[in-house]
Specification:
Layout (H helix, E strand, L loop, with lengths): L2 H16 L4 H11 L28
Helix pairs in contact: 1-2
Length: 61
């Protein structure tokens, strides 16, 4: 997943939650919107990539 995709998905989930859309419907809406790749039309520069280790960095080695 690209940083731009992650930003788009998080922002889209926030928008839909603010409209009181049920969570399962949110997933269906995002699946329908993904083929259009809307994050590629975002004029903002892509956010920097996640740091090395990312999500699992808090777990012991």
């Amino acid at each position: 997943m690209s940083p731009a995709y992650i930003r788009w998905r998080c922002e889209r989930v926030d928008q839909l939650l603010a409209q009181d859309v049920p969570r399962l419907e949110i997933l269906a809406i995002i699946r329908q919107e993904e083929p259009a790749r809307p994050w590629e039309q975002d004029p903002r520069p892509a956010p920097p990539p996640l740091p090395m280790g990312g999500y699992y960095s808090h777990q012991p080695a």
